């Protein structure tokens, strides 16, 4: 049993260090909200967090872009038109740091490929719009009101350079042109994630009790399976 625990502890530690950034480990939101769902986006070091009530269409989001400099803008958008022309029709939240240090955050509907992303209203009501820049990460917070009973959205996210306090055209690298996809807002929350707490931190005194110890071992096992099964394969076979 002890050996079993040690092997999985080791695998779990390796697993943590091999995937340093996953959405559910981050809980330090400056608006002190806890998000019940999150997803690691496949491009541009990005993560989306949300709470959603489909009956009212109320969608609270935090879009987080890690490893970004103060001379970059970023945007997160819903495109109700579709993902074919992901950019045209994007109902965007845009943020970047101004040269005086303040964050600028606003909404913009993208209507052309040569847009300068001027500020305008979206098709959706947007409130509690806010952005922060810290630790080389920008986070945009907003609450959007979608048509009620919406379940899936087309999301688009992007980053690009800022010059003289104005956003400039983004790169056409693969990561920038593939940064789009559908998001099922009703997908069940990550079970390893408890709102407001960092659930991967063990409670040392609790884990002394054997029942909880077993739960902890199982949790490690599933986390390992989720993010490190390839690693297990390498180590055991
Ligand atoms: C920075 O500039 C913006 C726009 O000109 C202004 O709204 C904001 O208050 C300024 N911030 C500081 C800290 O001066
Ligand atoms: C949303 O779904 C509920 C439950 O199925 C239904 O009662 C309501 O009429 C729907 N609202 C709209 C706007 O379709
Ligand atoms: C750890 O577990 C013990 C026993 O169940 C409990 O009294 C204590 O409050 C817990 N500590 C934390 C930080 O959750």
Automatic annotation (TrEMBL):
Residues 44-160 form the DOMON domain. Transmembrane segments: none annotated. Pfam families: DUF568 (PF04526). GO terms for cellular component: membrane. Its main location: membrane. Residues 178-206 are annotated as: Disordered. It comes from the Eukaryota. Keywords: Electron transport, Membrane, Signal, Transport. Residues 1-20 form the signal peptide. It is found in: Membrane. This is DOMON domain-containing protein. The gene is LOC115992589.
């Amino acid at each position: 049993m002890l050996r079993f625990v040690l092997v999985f502890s080791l695998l779990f530690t390796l697993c943590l260090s091999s995937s340093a950034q996953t959405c559910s480990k981050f809980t330090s939101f400056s608006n002190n909200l806890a998000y019940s769902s999150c997803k690691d986006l496949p491009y541009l070091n990005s993560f989306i967090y949300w709470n959603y009530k489909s009956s009212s269409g109320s969608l609270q989001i935090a879009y987080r872009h890690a490893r970004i400099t103060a001379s970059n803008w970023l945007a997160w958008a819903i495109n109700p038109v579709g993902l074919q022309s992901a950019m045209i029709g994007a109902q965007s939240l845009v943020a970047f740091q101004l040269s005086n240090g303040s964050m600028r955050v606003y909404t913009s509907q993208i209507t052309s490929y040569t847009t300068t992303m001027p500020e305008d209203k979206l098709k959706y009501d947007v409130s509690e719009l806010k952005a922060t820049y810290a630790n080389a990460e920008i986070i945009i917070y907003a609450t959007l009101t979608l048509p009620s009973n919406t379940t899936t959205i087309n999301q688009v996210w992007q980053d690009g350079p800022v010059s003289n306090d104005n956003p400039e055209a983004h790169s056409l690298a693969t990561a920038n042109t593939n940064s789009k996809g559908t998001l099922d807002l009703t997908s069940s929350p990550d079970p390893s994630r408890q709102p407001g707490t960092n659930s991967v931190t063990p409670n040392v005194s609790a884990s002394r009790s054997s029942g909880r110890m077993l739960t902890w071992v199982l949790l490690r096992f599933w986390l390992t399976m989720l993010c490190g099964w390839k690693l297990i394969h390498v180590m055991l076979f």
